[in-house]
Amino acid sequence: MLKSEVKQILMRMYRKNTIKWLLCRLFFYFAFANSALADSTTDVSKSTEQENDHWMQGLHETVTNSVYQSAQWFDSFFIANGSEQQKPTTSAKIRLAWLPKSRDWSEVKPRFRVRVKLPHFQNRASIILSDESDDELSNLPLEVNDSKAALANDKFSLALNYTQDKRADRLLNYRLGISSGDLFVRAKHKRRLTVNDKQGFLIEPSIYYFLDDGLEAKLLLEYDYQISSQSLFRVNYSIRGAEAFSGIRWKHGFYKLKQINSTTASVISFQVEGERNGARGFVIDKYTLAYRYRFNAIRDWLFFEIEPFLEFPEQENYTTTPGIALRLEGLFHKG
Question: Which residues form the signal peptide (predicted)?
Fold first, then answer.
């Protein structure tokens, strides 16, 4: 009986994540082959630790240089005749996450995001390439366990981002791109209001127009209270409405952030999300309680996260669903 259950779990993992695992393995195989080729010219008497260091350094340089060279090639299209090409600024983030839950042990999520600043637009313009939704309102920086919202399916997007006004307390930018095969334009305004040295507010409205799905509007409201030099309490509320679906999606978040030291931080969070004014009226989709522990180790560009959490989803009649998120994240910057 136990063997049968294990076999069923493995089959679900295989069917659900075959493509993602292949992409991950191809990526690391390429990095390994590149570093192995470099290793062939080194002295065989080096220690295992040195070889591992060389492998990791080779991986970082390969990804960083590949993104940078692509940025230079793209930026060269905007050089006027006789002008000298300037150096672009590139940043890339690659994340691998495993999110086992009591009812689903098979969720694996590789993610990437690349941003290229174009110097020939006075660094006001940038190209953003990502395989996840660039939705600050449903994918907040402190989002717990990367859970899938009802409308937040995996998306591949390519966009040109232009910043008209950027200051310490405000931001106004526009975006033109393609997401899940649908062309879109977006305007976003971000404004920070400081009450005193301990309290502040963030107001962030944005409006989208999708060629197929029509208009979409979002609003994020956030309040921060500085408890100490290393601790912060945050409350936020976001809403989202669109022609493509009825009702309004909403989310409440409560967070306690702590900077433990220069390489380690933690977040205790409680989130409630749901829908109102839809076909079912007011509905709470899910409660989530989590503790997120993030630390930098081995290399200054490599980060690890451990996040145990408890979910109470409506689809499971709000039954407790424990789980844990394990993440590995690499940051690659040049310029």
Answer: 1-38
